[in-house]
Design goal:
mainly alpha; 2 domains; two-stranded antiparallel ribbon; 17 helices; 6 strands
């Protein structure tokens, strides 16, 4: 069975990047955002470079923390947000740093062009065992140009399955869509923009020998700096709709109380009767009754800035959630970032456990 030759594709990416960088950096020491957008004739390559920088920018913002200073203080948060948003408009990268980023972007753009399935299998595997669709897929939508209609269909299918989906399930969706013969961009025309820079033999990118490759799963570290107000703004027309990164609590904490993933046929999405049953059970077991009275003041003080009213409102909203994952997403969106919950606090851990108990 013919398979893509990832090693040769990566080698080609490095050769391509060297040719482009040697020519560009001969005249100037750094490359900026506007120059990256216009760097190559193949716009997908340029967009993948920007996507990489966007992700790095998110990680750097997310890693801002210290044992000696309060990064959650309103004045500090406001200043750090302003700094990161201004920095996003002043990209400046030297050749030594930029060349490997460009090489990876070329390899990814080439793989997406000749084998969309292998590209998305690689991309989803790098996102982790379980993908959060809104944060990990939807936020990078504007960086896809090649086979854009396929990407839009993939995103629509992922969103229809809910916000959380396994990487294997996401890859299976790609295979299903490709089997339906979707409308793809003209491969020959796309490959011409590669060949103009570094000529190649298309057959060299395929092999009949099975190759294995490992992709690293990356996770955002815990931080006390709320990055939700950040806007990645290149100050260009195509960046007129900035993406807002969303902080995700460390995976290890949620895994401890996470509900098991079950087969689709047992999912409320495909089983209306089960959905009604889940809703009825949730209504019978109110979280108001699960939380002991002696815990309420502690939860209000630590989690809701001393507001018993907001605690009560939060519990009402959780009671109306159809399932555990919906409740967790509600907590993330409305309260986790707003009050900068510290996952090391016992009150936070106990609150999550009681939410899990409601849906047992």
């Amino acid at each position: 069975m013919q398979k893509v030759n990832l090693s040769e594709i990566n080698n080609y990416g490095r050769r391509f990047a060297k040719v482009v960088c040697d020519k560009f950096f001969k005249a100037q020491p750094t490359v900026n955002g506007k120059q990256i957008v216009e760097l190559c004739e193949n716009r997908q390559i340029n967009l993948f470079v920007i996507k990489t920088i966007y992700i790095k920018w998110q990680e750097e913002a997310n890693n801002i923390r210290s044992s000696f200073f309060d990064y959650a203080a309103p004045e500090v948060t406001q200043a750090m947000t302003a700094l990161m948003n201004v920095l996003s408009r002043y990209i400046s990268v030297k050749q030594a740093t930029f060349e490997p980023i460009l090489a990876n972007a070329v390899a990814d753009a080439l793989l997406l062009t000749i084998s969309p399935y292998d590209y998305y299998a690689k991309e989803f595997a790098a996102m982790g065992r379980e993908i959060e669709v809104n944060m990990q897929v939807k936020t990078i939508a504007k960086y896809f140009k090649v086979h854009k209609k396929l990407f839009d269909k993939i995103l629509a299918q992922l969103e229809a399955k809910g916000n959380l989906i396994s990487a294997d399930h996401a890859t299976a969706i790609v295979a299903m869509l490709l089997n339906q013969s979707p409308e793809l961009d003209n491969q020959e025309a796309l490959l011409q923009s590669f060949d103009k820079v570094v000529p190649f033999n298309l057959n060299s990118f395929f092999t009949y020998e099975q190759e294995s490759s490992k992709y690293t799963n990356t996770q955002l570290e815990e931080t006390t700096f709320d990055i939700s107000p950040l806007k990645f703004d290149l100050n260009l027309k195509e960046e007129s709709k900035p993406i807002t990164p969303v902080y995700t609590p460390p995976v290890v904490e949620e895994r401890r109380i996470e509900k098991p993933i079950v087969d689709d046929k047992f999912s409320p999405l495909s089983n209306p009767e089960l959905a009604k049953s889940i809703m009825a059970d949730a209504q019978r077991q109110s979280i108001h009754h699960i939380i002991p009275s002696e815990k309420r003041n502690a939860f209000a003080s630590v989690l809701f800035n001393g507001s018993n009213g907001e605690l009560s409102e939060a519990l009402d909203l959780i009671d109306h959630c159809p399932n555990y994952h919906a409740a967790i997403m509600l907590i993330k969106e409305r309260y986790f970032r707003k009050y900068a919950w510290d996952l090391e606090r016992d009150e936070v851990k106990e609150f999550y456990e009681m939410v899990a108990e409601k849906f047992d």
